[in-house]
Amino acid sequence: MKIAAPRLRTQLESAVPTEVEDEERLLDLGLEDVDLSDVEAEHVEIGGCRLTRCKLAGSELEKLILVDTELTQCDLANSRWADAALTRVAIGGSRMIGFAASGASFQHVTVRDTVLDFASFRFTKFLKVEFSDCRLQSADFVSADLTGATFRNCDLSGVEFSQVKASTAVFVDCIWEGAKGLASLAGATVAAASPIDTLAFTSAVTAASGITLAHPDELD
Fold first, then answer.
1. How many CB atoms lie within 10 A of CB 167?
2. At residue 11, does pLDDT exceed 70?
3. Do the beta carbons of residue 60 and residue 76 sit within 8 Å?
4. Are 15 and 29 in contact (CB under 8 A)?
5. What confidence tens digit (pLDDT) does each residue in 51-107 have?
6. Is 217 left (phi over 0), alpha (psi -120 to 50) or beta?
7. Which pTM was predicted?
8. Do 170 and 146 form a contact (C-beta atoms < 8 A)?
9. Residue ranges per structural domain of the chain
10. 68 and 26 Cβ atoms separated by less than 8 Å
11. Which pLDDT score is estimated for 212?
């Protein structure tokens, strides 16, 4: 699966937005250490931008359009981006605890080395998206379309996968302890370099199915 990288200009403007309003367009900006925490707006477009160590924690950006943008070491904790559309976006080394993007669309998106505990992606569609070296403990993917998603070296402990579409989804060397709704991953590919990790996934699926594994001596 080849994921397209963000397309950014060589030279980016450093103008800092003082406030963000509905239907605002932020284009071709290079922003560092900018604080946009708790910003609320609809139909905002961010394109061709590079955000470094920026704060968007608690932001509420409904129907956000985010295209050809890089976010590095940014704080997106508890942000709510309902029905957002992300295209050719790279997120790295960021904090996304409690991030919510229900009903969103992710296309050609990479998320690396990022904490997404308790994030919510209900009814979100993933097309050519890869999470790598991420922690997603207790994240919620209920009814999400994961057919175009890859999870690599991710901690999926306690994740909820109920009612997802997962045919052609790929999971490589992930942690599955306490994950729920694993029966919905029918058609997905799960790969693990370690036999111990393979056993851990098998045990998680068994537990999720309500089956108890036991040694014959335990039944005497």
1. 12
2. yes
3. no
4. yes
5. 999 999 999 999 999 999 999 999 999 999 999 999 999 999 999 999 999 999 999
6. alpha
7. 0.90
8. no
9. 66-210
10. no
11. 61
Give the start-end residues of each E strand in 33-178. Answer: 40-42, 45-47, 50-52, 60-62, 65-72, 85-92, 105-112, 125-132, 145-152, 170-172
Measure the CA–CA gap between 62 and 84, rounded to whole angstroms: 6
Q: Indicate if the pLDDT at residue 33 is higher than 80.
A: yes
pLDDT digit string, tens, across residues 160-175 = 999 999 999 999 999 9
Distance of alpha carbon 150 from alpha carbon 168, whole angstroms: 9
Higher pLDDT, 18 or 38: 38
Interatomic CA distance for residues 149 and 28, integer angstroms? 28
Torsion-angle region of residue 211: left (phi > 0), alpha (psi -120 to 50) or beta? Answer: beta
Burial annotation 85-108 (CB, 10 A radius, 16+ → b, else e) = bbbbbbbbebbbbbbbbbbbbbbb
- Hey, what are 82's tokens? 């309902």
Q: Identify which has the larger pLDDT, 199 or 77.
A: 77
Residue found under tokens 């003082």? 18
DSSP 8-state class, residue 73: S
Residue of 68, 37, 34, 69 lying closest to 53 (CA atoms): 34
Q: Can you spell out the DSSP letters for 77-97?
A: TT-B-TT-EEEEEEEES-B-T
Residue 27 phi/psi, 5° resolution?
Answer: -125, 135
175 backbone dihedrals φ, ψ, rounded to 5°: -100, 130
Q: How many helices (H) and strands (E) does the chain have?
A: 1, 13
